[in-house]
Each structure stands twice: as structure tokens, then as C-alpha cells.
User: Which sequence fits this backbone?
């Protein structure tokens, strides 16, 4: 049977052979990739590399690729939100699993290791600012997964959240790669992360507009499903985990807890906390096993 050729309008390759948004060619990317939301965090990661051999920027996607401990590694910024993560994951996957010459999917698939180094707000009082947290499970409160095939894993926490808030839609639930979680040490606590489609009302914040849900944080923080509680808010992790599951990549999201919502506190040393997370992550995960 002839292989499906992906049309020019569906997978856009720039005239220099790079992929549309990320502006990368297959050879520009390592198979171990650290991702950050803020483009200014990219050099804070890559300054720890032994060498950098490639740098580019397109929109909010800044990429540095180099060597660390004899291993090729990349760091990329993504901007904020799961809509950006859908673009990132689809284009990273195409860079390794689509032949750009023939525009066909390769027989043999490559699985990337993608590790988010992000900031986050704790929803539990006993997770102080300065905590480093690995998201074992993430729940997506956005609609991204309504457009993709259903996820195969357990959806019990997502279901419980829908029930608690009486949501007109079903959130989605996905997991980190256990191979990556198992490489962490006790610098990281493990948690269940709520990925929200915004920073303010979707995370229960009120500035001028009143959020629609009363007692949002208290109700979510008080939920318990099979001995697990929700731990933190951010804006990308569930999108990563869901796209990673569907595309066959190993995903892990690490969070520097810079806000504690019940205690109404923001980390005065947030930059130091982020740097501690970067160092621990590079030490534990910058080697492909
Ligand atoms: O610090 P980053 O990686 O951007 O992550 C968190 O910070 C942003 C909001 O301030 C959102 O992207 C959220 O997920
Ligand atoms: O509270 C916070 C802090 C960082 N990022 C978020 O999305 N929420």
C-alpha cells in the first residue's frame, strides 16, 4: 500500500527546511529536551551546558542545543498554555517521526524525553513556596483533548473534579513517564497537578472580576480520590502528558512552587528556587537512559 503523503498545508515546512513554528530542522534537536515557559529561562538552563552548538528563535519558541556530560541536550521555551504545547508536541514529533523529503511517517518511531521546568502555585497549605514538585498525574481543565482520540488511562480524578464543580465538560487526566519519575530523588515531592486554561479565575484568583466558582481552591484542595489529593496549579502539564501519551514520548513536568495560594504567599526567592530546580533536573535527567 502506498504511504500517506502529508500535504504542504497540513505539515508546513519553511523554505530553509525547518518546521513552521519551531523553526527547527531535524538535526537541530536532541532527543532529551528541557522545556520552559519563559524565553528568558532558556539561557539560565543552557549556561549549564558544556557547549552550545545551535541557537534559534521564532515567536516565543527559543531553542538552544548543546552537549552536557557527553550527551546532546536541547532546551526550548514554549510560552504559556496548552495551545502552545499542542504546537510544540506536534512539531517536535514531526521532526523525529516524519520524513521531510517524502512527507510520510517513518516506519521506526523515535521516542523523545521531554522534561518541563516550570513555575507553579501550590493549592495545599503544607506545600510551602520553595518546594520542588514533580507532577505524577495531571488534570487538564482546558478543551484541547476534545479534538484528539480519547486517552486510555484512569480518569477518576478528572471525573471527581467534574462532579465537585458541576462542570459542563469532562476534564482529562494523564500521567508522567514512570521511567523519568523513578530517576528523581527526595529533592522533589510528587503531586497531582491541575492544568488550567488561564492564570486568574481558572486558578481561583480574583483581581477585578469575580471567579464563577465559590471556594474554588478549598473545594479542589479538599478532594481525595484513592488516597491522592490535588497539589498545584499551572498551565501546561496535562497537555504535555496527554500529547506525549498519544504520540509515544516520555514526559515529565517539574514545578518550582513560587506561590502558596492558601497561605497567600509568593516566593521572595523565586529565581533561586527555579535555579535549584534547573540544577537538580540537569543532574538527574540530562542523560538519556
Ligand atoms: O513558568 P512557566 O513554565 O511559564 O509555567 C507557569 O507560569 C506561567 C504563568 O505565570 C504558566 O506558563 C504556568 O504554567
Ligand atoms: O500560581 C501560579 C504560579 C505560577 N504559575 C501558575 O500557573 N500559577
Assistant:
Amino acid at each position: 500500500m502506498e504511504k500517506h503523503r502529508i500535504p504542504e498545508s497540513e505539515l508546513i515546512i519553511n523554505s530553509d527546511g525547518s518546521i513552521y513554528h519551531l523553526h527547527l530542522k531535524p538535526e537541530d534537536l536532541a532527543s532529551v529536551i528541557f522545556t520552559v515557559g519563559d524565553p528568558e529561562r532558556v539561557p539560565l538552563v543552557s549556561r549549564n551546558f558544556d557547549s552550545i552548538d545551535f541557537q534559534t528563535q521564532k515567536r516565543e519558541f527559543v531553542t538552544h542545543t548543546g552537549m552536557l556530560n557527553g550527551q546532546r541536550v536541547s532546551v526550548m521555551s514554549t510560552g504559556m498554555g496548552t495551545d502552545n504545547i499542542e504546537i510544540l508536541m506536534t512539531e517536535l514529533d514531526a521532526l523525529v517521526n516524519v520524513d521531510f523529503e517524502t512527507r510520510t511517517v517513518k516506519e521506526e518511531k523515535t521516542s523523545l524525553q521531554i522534561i518541563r521546568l516550570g513555575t507553579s502555585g501550590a493549592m495545599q497549605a503544607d506545600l510551602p513556596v520553595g518546594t520542588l514538585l514533580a507532577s505524577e498525574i495531571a488534570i487538564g481543565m482546558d478543551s484541547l483533548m476534545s479534538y484528539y482520540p480519547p486517552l486510555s488511562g484512569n480518569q477518576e480524578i478528572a471525573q471527581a473534579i467534574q462532579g465537585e464543580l458541576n462542570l459542563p465538560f469532562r476534564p482529562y487526566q494523564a500521567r508522567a513517564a514512570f521511567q523519568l519519575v523513578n530517576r528523581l530523588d527526595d529533592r522533589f515531592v510528587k503531586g497531582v497537578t491541575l492544568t488550567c486554561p488561564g492564570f486568574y479565575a481558572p486558578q481561583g484568583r480574583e483581581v477585578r472580576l469575580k471567579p464563577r466558582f465559590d471556594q474554588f481552591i478549598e473545594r479542589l484542595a479538599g478532594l481525595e480520590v484513592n488516597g491522592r489529593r490535588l497539589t498545584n496549579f499551572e498551565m501546561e502539564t496535562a497537555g504535555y502528558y496527554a500529547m506525549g501519551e498519544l504520540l509515544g514520548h516520555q514526559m515529565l513536568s517539574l514545578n518550582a512552587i513560587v506561590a502558596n495560594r492558601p497561605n497567600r504567599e509568593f516566593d521572595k526567592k523565586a529565581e533561586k528556587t527555579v535555579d535549584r530546580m534547573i540544577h537538580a533536573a540537569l543532574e538527574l535527567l540530562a542523560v538519556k537512559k
